[in-house]
Design goal:
Radius of gyration: 19 Å
Helix content: over 70%
Order of helices and strands: HHHHHHHHHH
Number of strands: 0
Length: 182
């Protein structure tokens, strides 16, 4: 009896907790974010997708997030789907999807960051470097400086990596950045 009550309460808290979650959007990419369902099965698909991620089945989770994106046109589902492909080391899929969506434009910074990470996974550091530097020039966001620094570090060009870390540190006096510089 107590086990059933505990299970029901756990499920109830889980559903109420998921309903209260809001997407966090960086200030430079702020757009109107709503929590309203666009189609009837949206909540169910979200639950299935999150559960499959939790179980480590990133391929199925990515497919579910793709379905959510296709049916709702919400970018957060696309981002989650592409992140799951990165977990699977299927960077070619990420690169192709980002290229088809952005068509060479730097309008969606999150997609560009995902493409840079995918290029790094493929070992295409020069291509990732060019794209990441273009992104830094457009955004001036600390995390983008750190991304460029990671590329230079992977290429064993430590002087350039430190220069980008210094630029990041000038914007955000963080111990995390100092640790990376040492």
């Amino acid at each position: 009896m107590y086990k059933i009550l505990l299970i029901i309460l756990s499920i109830g808290f889980f559903f109420f907790g998921c309903a209260a979650i809001t997407a966090e959007v960086p200030k430079d990419e702020a757009k109107e974010v709503t929590n309203k369902k666009i189609f009837e099965e949206e909540d169910t698909l979200i639950m299935f997708a999150l559960r499959t991620e939790e179980l480590g089945d990133f391929k199925s989770a990515s497919n579910l997030f793709d379905q959510l994106y296709t049916r709702s046109n919400r970018k957060e589902y696309l981002y989650r789907s592409l992140q799951n492909y990165l977990y699977l080391k299927e960077s070619d899929v990420v690169i192709q999807r980002v290229d088809s969506i952005t068509q060479g434009k730097l309008d969606d910074y999150v997609l560009i960051r995902l493409k840079v990470v995918a290029l790094m996974q493929r070992g295409k550091y020069d291509e990732a470097q060019v794209l990441a530097i273009r992104l830094v020039q457009k955004t001036n966001v600390v995390d983008d400086y750190l991304l460029v620094s990671d590329i230079y570090t992977a290429k064993k060009e430590f002087d350039m990596a430190v220069k980008y870390l210094e630029s990041a540190y000038l914007q955000d006096y963080s111990e995390k950045i100092l640790d990376r510089m040492s």
